[in-house]
Amino acid sequence: MYQTDPPRSPQETMPTMYDLPSELVGESGLPDEFHCIQADLLSETCQLPNYPPEEILLASDLNLYYDPRHTLWYKRPDWYMVLGVTGATQQQDLRLSYVIWQEGVAPFLVVELLSPGTEPEDLGQTLREVNKPPTKWEVYEQILRVPYYVVYDRYENNLRAFRLNGARYQAIPLPEKRFWLEELELGLGLWQGTYQQTTGLWLRWYNAAGWLPTLKEQAEQERQRADRLAEYLRSQGINPDNLPI
Questions:
Q1: What is the rounded CA–CA span in Å between residue 35 and residue 196?
Q2: For the CA atoms of 133, 134, 136, 141, what is the dihedral angle to 10 degrees?
Q3: How far is it, in rounded angstroms, from Cα 75 to Cα 60?
Q4: What pLDDT, in 10s, does the model give residues 79-110?
Q5: What is the pTM of this model?
Q6: Could you give the CA distance from residue 106 to residue 67 in angstroms, rounded to a whole number?
Q7: What burial class does residue 67 get, using C-beta atoms within 10 Å of its C-beta: 0-12 exposed, 13-18 middle, 19+ buried?
Q8: Ramachandran assignment for 177, one of left (phi > 0), alpha (psi -120 to 50 degrees), beta (any other)
Q9: End-to-end CA distance of the chain
Q10: CA distance 109 to 140
C-alpha cells in the first residue's frame, strides 16, 4: 500500500475483524462438550449489578487479536469478559473476533479450561519460542494486562486464580475454591450440581446472597412465587384464576 499525504489513520489502514481469520487454525485444546456447557453456565450466571448487559461482552472461543504490530497473532480464550464495550443489537453486527486495536478495551477477566496438552502454556510454564508468538500467559499478563486470570482443571477439580499485581500475576488463595472480585461485587467458585442435564463440579458466579441462578432456576423461582401467592389468595377467599391478567 502506498503512503498518502497526509498519512491515513490506523483505523483506515489496520485490518478489521472482517479481514482476520475467525476460525480455529491448527490449534490444540479444541472445545469439547464440557467447554461449551461450562462457558454457557459462566455466561448465564454472570449478572453484574453495576454494569448494564449492553455494556458487557461475554465471549467464548472468540479469537482475541492483541498486537497491532503482528496483526495475525491471536489467542482464543475459553471464556472472557470485557467491560465497557457495546454489544451488537443486530445479528449482522455480531463480532467475528475481538480486535484490540479496534475495540480499545482489554478483557477484565480470562478463564481457561485445561485440556490435555494445554496446561503448561495456560499456567505460564511454557517458554516462548524464537520468532513465535508469545504464550497465553505472556499475552494476558504482559501485553493485555488482564486484571484477573482463572484456570480450571476439571480432571483434578483444581481451580487456580491470579490477580495482576504490578507487572506480574499473583496467585489468589482459594481455601474454599472460590474468590470474591470486589470490582464486580461478584464471586467466582466451584459449585457441585446439575446443569444442562449434566452433574459435576462447575465454575459458577455468586453474590453475597449465594449462587446466581440459571435461566431454568429463575423460571422455577418465579413459578414457586406464583404458587405461594395463589395459595395466599385462596386462604383469603379469593380465586386467583378469576383475577384479571
A1: 13
A2: -150
A3: 12
A4: 999 999 988 889 999 999 999 999 999 999 99
A5: 0.84
A6: 12
A7: middle
A8: left
A9: 65
A10: 9
Name which of 18, 127, 113 is nearest 65 in CA terms: 18
Contact of 39 with 79, CB cutoff 8 Å: yes
Q: What is the pLDDT of residue 1?
A: 47
- The gap from C-alpha 205 to its chain's centroid, in whole angstroms, comes to 11
HEC-encoded secondary structure of the chain: CCCCCCCCCHHHHCCCCCCCCCCCCCCCCCCCHHHHHHHHHHHHHCCCCCCCHHHEEEECCCCEECCCCCCCCEECCCEEEEECCCCCCCHHHCCCCEEHHHHCCCCCEEEEECCCCCHHHHCCCCCCCCCCCCCHHHHHHHHCCCCEEEEEECCCCEEEEEEEECCEEEECCCCCCEEEECCCCEEEEEEEEEECCEEEEEEEEEECCEECCCHHHHHHHHHHHHHHHHHHHHHCCCCHHHCCC
Nearest to 64 by CA among 43, 41, 95, 42: 95
Backbone angles phi, psi at 90, to 5 degrees: -125, 145
Residues 138/73, Cβ–Cβ less than 8 Å: no
Contact 44, 215 (CB under 8 A): yes
